[in-house]
Structure formats: structure tokens, C-alpha cells
Amino acid sequence: MKTKNFQISNFKFQLSLSIVLISCMLISCQQKSNTNTTTSANTETSANANIDTNTAVGTTTTDVGNTITEEQAIEMALALPESQKIQYVGAFSNGISEDGTYYWIQVGNNMETHFATWYHFYVYITPQVEIKYYDVFDDEVKSLDQWRKEQEEL
């Protein structure tokens, strides 16, 4: 009988230890991902941008010419009126496209426990700086004017 009780308590101990270790790993990963590329709405743009946030078309001048950084692309998406309406707004980048023409930026609620995406934007960097909306349901890239018009019709 002692052997059976020992096996049960040993199993409980191993299970408890496993749960603690997994929890520590998840917390560590979450803290690391929160500090990775998430940016809040109160950051300042470091480039001299000439972007109309209503149409999100224009050019920007930086030290490297007519290109923008990933951080600047995030800041541009956060500057859009739709992004400004989100409480606890945050954004992160999925990186630059394979062909190097745009950054894919997700904007949404940056909560303590999770990130809830509201909008997907493509910030094009060539041939001119321009922001477009990516409709995940239709798998279609739309101009901001077209997307906003569709939103008004809903």
C-alpha cells in the first residue's frame, strides 16, 4: 500500500512541477513578445512625413531617401483616425513583404493578456508611401477611401 501512495504522490509532484515550469515559460514568452515590436499610439514619428492621414497617401523624406522604417510604418498606421478611436491601441508589424514593397501592420487593442486585431494595413513604401486596408474576409487590398465608403454603407 505504501508503494501505491508513493507513486500517486510522486505523480502529483511531477505534474505540479510541470505546470509551474510551463507557466513560467509562457509568462517569459509573453513578456518578450510584448517588448518586441509593439508600439503605443503616443510615440512620435522620427521622419519628416508628409502624409495625409485621411487618404494616407504622400511621401516621406528620411536620411535614406524615399523609404521608411518598420517603426515609422507602425506610427503611420497608428496615426490614422480609425486607429485613434481604439482604447488601449497598439500595433505590431508582420515584417516587410517578400517583394519589399510594403509592411503589414496590425492595429488593435493591446491588452495586458492578449492583442486583439481590429485592422490590417499595408503600408506601401514604393513607388510612393501609401497606406491601404487589407480585408481579411475578402482577401482583398482596398484603398482607404474605398474601405471607408464600405464602412459607411454598413
Please describe what this structure looks like.
The protein has helices at 2-34, 70-79, 81-84, 144-153; strands spanning 39-40, 48-52, 57-61, 89-96, 102-110, 115-124, 129-135, 140-143. The protein is of the alpha+beta class. Strands 1, 2, 3, 4, 5, 6, 7 and 8 form an eight-stranded antiparallel β-sheet that branches. The longest helix has 33 residues, at 2-34. The termini are far apart. Residues 26-49 and 58-65 have low confidence and may be disordered.
**DSSP helix fraction:** 25-40%
Residue runs with pLDDT of under 50 for 5 or more positions: 26-49, 58-65
What's the rounded overall pLDDT mean?
74
Question: How would you describe the shape?
Answer: globular
Structural class: alpha+beta
How many strand segments? 8
Question: What keyword list fits this structure?
Answer:
154 residues, alpha+beta, 2 domains, 8-stranded antiparallel β-sheet, 8 strands, 32% strand
Give a quick precis of the structure.
It is built from 4 helices and 8 strands.
SSE inventory with pairings:
Layout lengths: L1 H33 L4 E2 L7 E5 L4 E5 L8 H10 L1 H4 L4 E8 L5 E9 L4 E10 L4 E7 L4 E4 H10 L1
Antiparallel strand pairs: 1-4, 2-3, 3-7, 4-5, 5-6, 6-7, 7-8
